[in-house]
Input
Amino acid sequence: MWVDVSDSASAKTASAAAPWWGESELTPGAMRAWRIGPFQLWVRAQAHEWRLWNAASGDTMARELVLGAEAQDGEVPGDAAVTRVGLSSRPPVLRLWPALADRDVVVRPDIPAVVPAGVRLELFVTTPVWITARAGADGPVLLDEPSHRLSDTWFGPNTLQGELAYAIRTSARLELEELPRRPHRAITKVTVVNGARDALPLDKLKVPVTGLRIYASADEGLWTDNVTLERTLQGAQAEAAIGSGPEVPGLSTVQIAGPRVTTSPRFSLNAFGRLFGV
Amino acid sequence: MPWLTSLIDALHLHVKPEVVAELVRAGVYVLLGIGLARITSVTVNRATKHMSPQERVLLRRLASYLVLGLFLASALRELGFRFDVLLGAAGIVTVAVGFASQTSASNMISGLFLMLERSIAIGDVINVSGTVGEVLSVDLLSTRLRTFDNLLVRIPNQTMVTTMITNYNRLPIRRFDLQVGVAYKEDLAEVERALLDIADRNPLCLEDPAPLLISLGFGASSINYQLSVWAKRENWLELRNRITREVKAGFDELGIELPFPHVELYTGPVTKPFPVVLTGPLAASGAPAPATSDEPAEGGADGGRDGP
Output
């Protein structure tokens, strides 16, 4: 089924029709194609092997959705990554599921903000999801690729200490209604509480996405647990609290995927700051 | 076993029973020592799983040799050796051995310092005085490297301690510096924007630390820049290759010239243009006669400005 979601009205219709995640029974030997925003996937399940091809266009604003359309070999671009798995499954069932990034994400607002002392700020950020594919409900993982390849970054006080993360630039909207909905991105509400005595310059903040769960709302949007980052002392340290589920106005949500890494609901982390001199 | 019976009879006949007992006790000590040394080695190996491989090997050997040494000394004492005489002679022997083995001793002590310092570990890629390779082992006397063309290099530990060593594996991120020269005619603001944009679009290039652009000044044939980009250590080589390709492609797309070295000859306005005379195959093929010295020749009199 091809769905053109290039305008917001069609987007609502298409997203309400069917989510891209779930199970699809495949015809042995036939190729099927999916397109989830910038991410394209082709799958062919044969008697003793599965082949998956994937490519990403890099257009993070893309909203196209194609769900299991018939495809031909010639449609696969030459630079698509191919995965070949020796597997027999009758009938072949493909399970597609979203997952969050495999590293924490450093969010850099397009326009840096300042959070005055004692102020609580709520902002919404979206992160591209990873597309995971399994053979059936309990079969082996065949694919675990980002829908959009994020840029690597280093988050730490210097080049000796810190950790690798992904970087995204965001408008960091304060109003949920302003947030464009895209099928390959999950929305996270981040609450920044500046309990310290000095203002907090919000050049970048690290969102611990590896510990978040994914939820689907009734309008087929993707959401994560809410995150609260509370700064109580000067510096970059924060107390992070992961909420139990998002709060989507007027819509119910259902958890569809667990976190990559199991963490406790509250922990400390180095969440804020400029590099080299927080 | 008739041979054993004959041996025991011969011993009874020719050797005093006390000596036989001493030999047997010494033998038992040696066998016990060997057995306990092996057990000690296995126990130390299990207990040091948290340590680096070379530390484990060293501790294992030290412990087993110590146990074996103690039992050997007990065996020798059983056989009647007097250690006080040995200790007396040991002083003289030590001086002699010390002179003879000062290099080995230095290597051994250097090896201990290397392990305690932990500046290198098995698996690290290091550069020692221009020799680059992967560390295979840090032994008591030497360190072994495997070069990338699969040669085995043995470096005495004393050399390792006294030489500057560069460890490519120790830190998680690494910077690559790309030197780029652009033609003098180019718009430098556009060049700088293009270079930073190329770095920004490459996902392997870290956003932080941010890519750095440094102007290196006016070269003989180009205006030179250094584009410094950071990558995860494992991606460094791939970034190095990709960024070079991407800069070339990006410059080609924008029409920014990457100049080749060229020299312009200029003698000032008072002299006439250089005459160009064709010789060889072109002359033989009947190519048009060159311009006279009063007329500029096509493409020749301006010193090759148009380039090949």
About this structure: The mean pLDDT of chain A is 83.
